[in-house]
Design brief:
This protein is of the alpha+beta class. Helix content is 29%, strand content 19%. Strand 1 and strand 2 form a beta hairpin.
């Protein structure tokens, strides 16, 4: 509405408090013009929207190159804009001579129609794997070949220190094979060796060329890591099987003859105690009382390895990190009715001890009542002349080795194409290889408990 008309309206209001007839007519004309202009603009807008929808549908159905949709949104090419104006005249704004830019915000449903597949894809690889945590529980030896390995354990020769006549002839004593701990009795004259044979272990994978071509997420790029993990897992489980069997502590290593079970018959306060301060004290007492085949004490040196399964990880960490131990037994007042004094000590019992959480214990041991409660202590086998167990690896295979099959497919007149793999199957084959063997040697440097309390 022109400014002078506002002046007439104001003056009319000031003079009589009412609009004059001329002023009223001017207002009505102005309002009618505004309504008509708005109606005309709405009609143009609807036409532009319809033309824009037609353009979008043509591009979506393939009747028009999508580049025209980009030009409608952001004009940069005069020739393409001219084609748009010719085919979709409603896009032309007669008021200002410009292309009407498309400004509608696309919703979530529009993306599926435009792109068919998802826009954000990601591949999560293999699980994190444990290293070989239990390798410190066995004596590791390097083997030269695949032949059977023999290990000899011989006792005797030297007689006990006794008083005798200086003129008496010197006594003689033959070398004899040792027996499980049973006082001062030697075995019969035998020198049968302890033997084991190394075996070849492999894990393999094969991927077809078509799968590699379709792999846009890099799924097959980590096959070497997966093979290495499979090799380490196999070694870990192999080692675990020497001190754990399906029923609990391995019956070939933990025997009555070796007196290395944590039970009252061997000096423990209770049979097969749970992992606790009292249980650790019993284990150390039994280790300290070990004797050789002649009945003489064995000096146990080296660090102690406390091994246990995943179910005892919280218990073991609490024991390893406790600050003080309050004792009402083994130095305090024994009995259920405590009247006297208790002993408060620092955590000396774990100062020479390393925790080893073996995740394969509940996998090798399948007895439900034991697999989550069993535990044991093994003296560092490198500190003992007779280790509890030996595991041998063929020279060059101390760690798993990775191999791949040489591709034998090549283009006519060209070189070998490593992606095509085998000529007939078009597979690419890879494997991990290790050679190992092992056997239990002597159980006097390790003790174990089922943790069942009986």
């Amino acid at each position: 509405m022109p400014n002078d008309q506002f002046g007439y309206i104001n003056s009319g209001m000031e003079s009589g408090g009412q609009l004059s007839s001329w002023s009223a007519n001017a207002v009505n004309d102005s309002m009618a013009g505004f309504t008509a202009a708005r109606r005309n603009a709405s009609s143009q807008h609807r036409r532009k929207v319809l033309e824009a929808a037609k353009l979008y549908a043509d591009c979506l159905q393939g009747r028009l190159d999508p580049i025209f949709l980009k030009q409608a949104m952001r004009p940069t090419d005069e020739t393409l804009v001219g084609v748009l104006l010719e085919r979709y005249p409603g896009l032309y704004d007669n008021g200002n001579g410009r292309i009407m830019g498309l400004r509608e915000t696309m919703s979530v449903t529009d993306y599926q129609a435009l792109y068919v597949d998802v826009l954000d894809r990601m591949y999560y690889g293999y699980y994190n794997a444990y290293p070989i945590v239990n390798k410190g529980l066995v004596k590791v030896h390097t083997l030269r070949d695949f032949r059977t390995v023999s290990r000899y354990l011989l006792d005797g020769v030297v007689t006990p220190l006794t008083s005798m006549d200086a003129a008496a002839p010197p006594p003689q004593r033959a070398l004899q094979g040792p027996v499980p701990q049973d006082g001062a009795t030697f075995a019969a004259a035998t020198t049968a060796p302890i033997q084991y044979s190394p075996l070849l272990y492999q894990a393999m994978t094969s991927v077809n060329w078509r799968a590699m071509v379709n792999d846009d997420l890099g799924i097959f790029q980590d096959l070497s890591n997966r093979l290495a993990i499979a090799g380490n897992r196999g070694i870990s489980k192999f080692i675990t099987s020497f001190y754990v069997d399906a029923n609990g502590p391995n019956a070939l290593l933990y025997t009555t003859g070796y007196a290395n079970k944590i039970v009252t018959a061997n000096g423990a306060a209770t049979n097969n105690p749970a992992l606790s301060i009292a249980g650790l004290q019993d284990a150390i007492k039994i280790l300290g009382g070990m004797r050789d085949s002649g009945g003489d004490p064995i000096l146990i040196t080296g660090r102690l390895k406390l091994w246990y399964g995943p179910a005892l990880i919280a218990t073991a960490n609490n024991l390893m990190n406790q600050l003080n131990v309050y004792l009402t037994q083994a130095g305090g007042v024994e009995g259920s009715s405590q009247i006297g004094q208790a002993v408060n000590t620092n955590n000396w019992i774990v100062q020479n001890m390393d925790p080893v959480m073996d995740p394969y214990i509940p996998i090798v041991c399948t007895t439900s009542g034991v697999k989550n409660t069993m535990w044991g202590i093994t003296v560092d086998p490198n500190s003992q002349n007779r280790p509890n167990t030996e595991v041998g690896f063929l020279s060059g295979f101390e760690t798993p080795q990775l191999f791949t099959k040489l591709p034998n497919t090549q283009r006519m007149g060209g070189g070998v194409d490593p992606m095509l793999g085998d000529f007939y199957t078009m597979d690419s084959d890879m494997k991990v290889v290790t050679v190992m063997g092992g056997v239990q040697i002597d159980g006097r440097s390790t003790v174990a408990s089922t943790g069942a309390g009986s």
